[in-house]
């Protein structure tokens, strides 16, 4: 009896261990996201150059709508706690109406080459910047950078030159591809239900393949974090390294739960630094209450995207308030107590409004919101959220990120964490807010991974 | 007998100190018991409080006159609306998504086409004006209300009644019910006051933070006082249900009866217990068969459903200014936002229909009139702020959540209401339920959708209270 029990336990334990160490691979199938049924002929793989353009008509329409805004004054002394403050919104809109130069910004957008190509029935937009000078004896390292919501490829504009033309001769030179997630900006929106982050990852793999890259690095924040993570899970051999600045735990397991309960008393046990303790505790307030305060948008977008986006596609001011509120609050929570939401402390109005214009001119707010429903609509239990990542990963931990993740938590999912850097400053839109810091961390990470691979 | 002898024996064998202890604790226990029983009998109320919500500083005196008011419109207003409708930038819905992603764009175009070309706002304004409207200043805000006096008063008992609406509804929801309450001649008839919650429709919105249901309740009590009513009935659903409940808690002596078509149940041990035992032994925890049908499977029917349908509540309770901004410029955006609720909250199976089942229970004219009330007054943002003001602090810890309601109460449980509240759960707080009926059909907007059913239930409740 006893020996049988022992044998069962041993076999059971072995099976458990084998299961754990088996590298799970995520699988994705080809989809068809265009209208109707897929055509009989094969896929059209041509790549067409694309230019962002505008017209007098577009601008006149925008100005007319701005002029017809019906503003509602904010409550006395409410700053940004009820959402985007009405009085400050008037100032932003006045700048937008009279001083913002959209044509100038369109030229700025076009400074990098843009392209479109049809994958799985939808036209995918991306920019592709090849470095001008690659030092002799080395090659440009391919890197795909993926944005999130309510951002766009434009968030990376400050970062791109630091990677393609680094000033330091010891730095690596990158070849950068920045796509727009389908349904965002100049990428066509899917017409069928079910387009989630894994489908986006699958499409971006096809894109990189079509561009001739066998291996590449990936960087992302917000949705970009999830899509690049899925890319690493789909094809671990193709993704040479994964660099993210946002990594909320998708499946709180025992180590995370324990660390929350005991981490304050025994920080060293869980590798918590002072910053970790400060940002996580009191945990009811910092983790639960704060999340509830800031996730209303996520809740409604994950359930009724077509309803909430409806008015925003007609009212540019409504769209601006909705989008820019995030650039205020997600850069620093303290900005909620400021009359002007601290909006222009880290960003210029030109950059902020250019991002809003990408949503406005492409009319993509509704499809951008649908991505939330496709990913969260059935709960947080997708197969990929339970699978770890075995690709070398670098994590840049910015102090004002929405969800603070200490090293222990990141390691639960990213089993080959190569770098974990506590960044000096910056919030959720880190690439746009602190491009220099981000570039430095990407350099540090990639150099380390390359060195390891050569050994 | 033997036991008594044994007890007597034990008692006598105790020493003096032990005897004193025993007698002392028996008296104390009896005292505590008596106190508890007496406390339960006391009618508890919540404090009235005070507030001032106007712009800037409060003046020394306030004008408390009542001014007649007429709903008006102009050609400019209608032209502006049409222009904005014409400029709508639609996005195609996903194939086969019906109303699962929110208001379906394809159907929205049809509704909007009717709105643009067939809907006659001037005519609807006349419909609105068929009852007399008034405004009066209370706590710094212009409060709008309609006051309907029954035409046949002789040989009838005339009872004053206030009806309070919710979100995204308005006083207009009660228009179909009005004649059923004011024009009958069978001995019992009502004089109806129907206000707009400050921040909704024609009632001025608060300029200060903190305007919650307690403030609205107090303002409406002042209104009834100003109109000369010392005792009256109340009826409400949605926010109206909470506000009228608060009114009954603040001045129970004034409220003859409280009738609700939506009732929030406290989460508590009793509720949890009935959730666990309910599916198996419903009668043990005070649940009827009908209750069981409507409640279980609990997780799917209530929790998951709630999550699916409460996104609007979450964003309005946190960022109302952001959420409402675009809806105040885009009439189509506003219509989609509001009418989605009239579809889904009437019957949540409407989500699987391509047209959202919108016109099965309502006419487009009625639905759009309600939307126009929000549009022409630009009140969508202030209407959303009410959510934040009420959910700022944990609702379960607020003074009204911890206090019972002791006035005679009637509950009408509609089958497609957002969540079902069985009588046993309602009784936790509503201690004087005199009528509880399962309605055969109808959803959240009961007065709008099934005016006859609601009016019948209400009248039957009043008759019970009045011992008619």
TrEMBL record, chain A:
Task: Give the residues annotated as coiled coil.
Answer: none
Q: Which GO terms describe its molecular function?
A: cis-stilbene-oxide hydrolase activity
GO BP terms: epoxide metabolic process
**Residue ranges constituting the Epoxide hydrolase N-terminal domain according to the UniProt record:** 48-156
A single Gene Ontology CC annotation of this entry is: endoplasmic reticulum membrane
The record ties this protein, via InterPro entries, to: AB_hydrolase_fold (IPR029058), Epox_hydrolase-like (IPR000639), Epoxide_hydro_N (IPR010497), Epoxide_hydrolase (IPR016292)
Q: Which UniProt keywords apply?
A: Aromatic hydrocarbons catabolism, Endoplasmic reticulum, Hydrolase, Membrane, Signal
Query: What compartments host this protein?
Result: Endoplasmic reticulum membrane; Microsome membrane
Q: Mainly resides where?
A: endoplasmic reticulum
Q: Where is the active site?
A: 222 (nucleophile), 372 (proton donor), 428 (proton acceptor)
- Asked if the record carries the keyword Hydrolase, the reply is yes
Q: Does the keyword Hydrolase apply?
A: yes
Its membrane topology is listed as: Single-pass membrane protein
Output the superkingdom of the source species: Eukaryota
Could you tell me the EC number(s) of this protein? 3.3.2.9
Reactions catalysed: 1-(4-methoxyphenyl)-N-methyl-N-[(3-methyloxetan-3-yl)methyl]methanamine + H2O = 2-{[(4-methoxybenzyl)(methyl)amino]methyl}-2-methylpropane-1,3-diol; cis-stilbene oxide + H2O = (1R,2R)-hydrobenzoin
Position of the signal peptide: 1-23
**Family statement drawn from the similarity comment of this UniProt entry:** Belongs to the peptidase S33 family.
Summarizing the function annotation, the protein's role is: Biotransformation enzyme that catalyzes the hydrolysis of arene and aliphatic epoxides to less reactive and more water soluble dihydrodiols by the trans addition of water.
Its name, as the record gives it, is Epoxide hydrolase
The record lists the organism as Eleginops maclovinus (Patagonian blennie)
From TrEMBL, chain B:
Pfam families in the cross-refs = EHN
Q: Where in the cell is it found?
A: Endoplasmic reticulum membrane; Microsome membrane
InterPro entries named in the record: AB_hydrolase_fold (IPR029058), Epox_hydrolase-like (IPR000639), Epoxide_hydro_N (IPR010497), Epoxide_hydrolase (IPR016292)
Q: Please indicate which superkingdom the organism of origin belongs to.
A: Eukaryota
In its UniProt record, a GO molecular function of this protein is: cis-stilbene-oxide hydrolase activity
Q: Does the keyword Metal-binding apply?
A: no
Keyword terms, alphabetized: Aromatic hydrocarbons catabolism, Detoxification, Endoplasmic reticulum, Hydrolase, Lipid metabolism, Membrane, Methylation, Microsome, Transmembrane, Transmembrane helix
Question: GO BP, one example?
Answer: arachidonate metabolic process
Report which residue ranges the record marks as coiled coil.
none
Membrane topology, as annotated, equals: Single-pass type III membrane protein
Location of the Epoxide hydrolase N-terminal domain: 67-174
Membrane spanning segments where? 20-37
Q: Which residues form the active site?
A: 238, 387, 444
Catalytic activity field: cis-stilbene oxide + H2O = (1R,2R)-hydrobenzoin; 1-(4-methoxyphenyl)-N-methyl-N-[(3-methyloxetan-3-yl)methyl]methanamine + H2O = 2-{[(4-methoxybenzyl)(methyl)amino]methyl}-2-methylpropane-1,3-diol; 11,12-epoxy-(5Z,8Z,14Z)-eicosatrienoate + H2O = 11,12-dihydroxy-(5Z,8Z,14Z)-eicosatrienoate; 8,9-epoxy-(5Z,11Z,14Z)-eicosatrienoate + H2O = 8,9-dihydroxy-(5Z,11Z,14Z)-eicosatrienoate
EC number of this enzyme: 3.3.2.9
Q: Which GO terms describe its cellular component?
A: endoplasmic reticulum membrane
* Top EC class of this enzyme: hydrolase
The family annotation for this protein states: Belongs to the peptidase S33 family.
Role according to the record: Biotransformation enzyme that catalyzes the hydrolysis of arene and aliphatic epoxides to less reactive and more water soluble dihydrodiols by the trans addition of water.
What protein does this entry describe?
Epoxide hydrolase
Q: Look up and give the organism this protein is from.
A: Eleginops maclovinus
Q: What is the lineage of its organism?
A: Eukaryota, Metazoa, Chordata, Craniata, Vertebrata
């Amino acid at each position: 009896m006893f020996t049988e029990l022992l044998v069962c336990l041993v076999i059971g334990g072995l099976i458990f261990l084998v299961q754990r160490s088996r590298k799970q691979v995520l699988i994705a199938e080809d989809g068809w996201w265009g209208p109707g049924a897929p055509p009989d002929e094969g896929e059209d793989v041509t790549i067409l150059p694309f230019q962002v353009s505008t017209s007098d008509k577009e601008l006149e329409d925008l100005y007319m709508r701005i002029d017809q805004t019906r503003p509602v004054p904010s409550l006395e002394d409410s700053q940004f706690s009820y959402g985007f403050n009405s009085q400050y919104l008037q100032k932003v809109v006045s700048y937008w109406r009279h001083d913002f130069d959209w044509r100038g910004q369109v030229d700025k957008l076009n400074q990098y080459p843009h392209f479109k190509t049809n994958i799985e029935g939808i036209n995918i937009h991306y920019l592709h910047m090849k470095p001008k000078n690659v030092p002799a004896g080395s090659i440009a390292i391919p890197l795909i950078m993926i944005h999130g919501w309510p951002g766009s490829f434009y968030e990376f504009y400050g970062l791109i030159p630091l990677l393609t033309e680094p000033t330091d001769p010891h730095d690596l030179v990158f070849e950068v591809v920045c796509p727009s997630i389908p349904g965002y900006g100049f990428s066509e929106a899917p017409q069928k239900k079910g387009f989630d982050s894994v489908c986006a990852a699958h499409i971006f793999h096809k894109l990189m393949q079509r561009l001739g890259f066998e291996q590449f690095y990936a960087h992302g924040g917000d949705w970009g974090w999830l899509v690049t993570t899925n890319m690493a899970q789909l094809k671990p051999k193709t993704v040479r390294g994964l660099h993210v600045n946002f990594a909320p735990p998708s499946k709180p397991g025992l180590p995370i739960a324990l660390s929350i309960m005991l981490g304050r008393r025994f920080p060293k046990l869980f590798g918590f630094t002072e910053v970790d303790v400060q940002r996580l505790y009191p945990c009811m307030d910092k983790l639960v209450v704060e999340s509830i305060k800031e996730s209303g948008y996520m809740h409604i977008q994950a359930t009724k995207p077509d309803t909430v986006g409806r008015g925003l596609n007609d009212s540019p001011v409504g769209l601006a308030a909705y989008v820019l509120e995030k650039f205020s609050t997600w850069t620093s929570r303290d900005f909620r107590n400021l009359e002007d939401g601290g909006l222009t402390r880290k960003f210029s109005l030109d950059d902020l409004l250019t991002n809003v214009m990408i949503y406005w001119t492409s009319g993509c707010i509704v499809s951008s919101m649908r991505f939330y429903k496709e990913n969260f609509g059935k709960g947080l239990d997708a197969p990929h959220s339970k699978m770890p990542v075995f690709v070398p990963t670098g994590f840049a931990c910015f102090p004002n990120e929405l969800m603070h993740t200490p090293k222990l938590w990141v390691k639960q999912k990213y089993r080959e964490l190569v770098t974990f850097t506590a960044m000096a400053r910056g919030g959720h839109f880190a690439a746009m807010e602190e491009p220099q810091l981000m570039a430095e961390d990407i350099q540090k990470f990639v150099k380390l991974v390359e060195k390891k691979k050569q050994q | 007998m033997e036991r008594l002898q044994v007890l007597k024996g034990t008692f006598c064998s105790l020493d003096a100190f032990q005897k004193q202890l025993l007698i002392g604790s028996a008296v104390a226990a009896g005292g505590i018991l008596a106190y508890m029983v007496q406390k339960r009998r006391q009618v508890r109320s919540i404090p009235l409080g005070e507030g001032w919500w106007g712009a800037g500083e409060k003046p020394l005196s306030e004008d408390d006159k009542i001014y007649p008011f007429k709903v008006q419109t102009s050609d400019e207003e209608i032209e502006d609306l049409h222009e904005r409708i014409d400029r709508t930038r639609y996005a195609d819905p996903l194939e086969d998504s019906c109303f699962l992603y929110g208001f379906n764009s394809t159907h929205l175009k049809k509704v909007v086409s009717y709105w643009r070309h067939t809907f006659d706002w001037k005519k609807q304004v006349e419909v609105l004006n068929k009852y007399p409207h008034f405004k009066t200043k209370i706590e710094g805000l212009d409060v709008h209300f309609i006051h309907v006096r029954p035409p046949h008063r002789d040989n009838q008992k005339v009872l004053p009644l206030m009806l309070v609406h919710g979100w995204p509804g308005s006083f207009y929801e009660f228009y179909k019910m009005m004649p059923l309450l004011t024009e009958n001649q069978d001995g019992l008839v009502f004089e109806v006051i129907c206000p707009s919650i400050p921040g909704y429709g024609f009632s001025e919105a608060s300029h200060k933070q903190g305007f919650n249901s307690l403030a609205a309740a107090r303002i409406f009590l002042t209104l009834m006082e100003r109109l000369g009513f010392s005792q009256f009935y109340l009826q409400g659903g949605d926010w109206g249900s909470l506000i009228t409940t608060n009114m009954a808690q603040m001045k129970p002596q004034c409220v003859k009866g409280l009738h609700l078509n939506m009732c929030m149940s406290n989460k508590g041990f009793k509720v949890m217990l009935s959730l666990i035992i309910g599916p198996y032994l419903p009668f043990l925890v005070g649940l009827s068969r009908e209750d069981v049908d409507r409640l279980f499977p609990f997780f799917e029917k209530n929790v998951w459903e709630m999550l699916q349908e409460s996104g609007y509540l979450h964003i309005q309770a946190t960022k109302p200014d952001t959420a409402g901004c675009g809806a105040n410029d885009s009439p189509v955006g506003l219509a989609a936002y509001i009418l989605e609720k009239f579809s889904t909250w009437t019957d949540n199976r409407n989500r699987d229909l391509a047209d959202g089942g919108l016109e099965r229970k309502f006419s487009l004219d009625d639905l759009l009139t309600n939307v126009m009330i929000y549009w022409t007054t630009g009140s969508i943002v202030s209407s959303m702020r009410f959510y934040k003001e009420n959910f700022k602090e944990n609702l379960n810890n607020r003074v009204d959540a911890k206090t019972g309601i002791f006035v005679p109460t009637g509950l009408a449980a509609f089958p497609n209401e957002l969540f079902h509240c069985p009588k046993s759960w309602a009784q936790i707080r509503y201690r004087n339920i005199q009528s509880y009926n399962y309605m055969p059909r109808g959803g959240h907007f009961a007065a709008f959708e099934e005016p006859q059913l609601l009016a019948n239930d209400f009248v039957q409740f009043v008759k019970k209270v009045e011992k008619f």
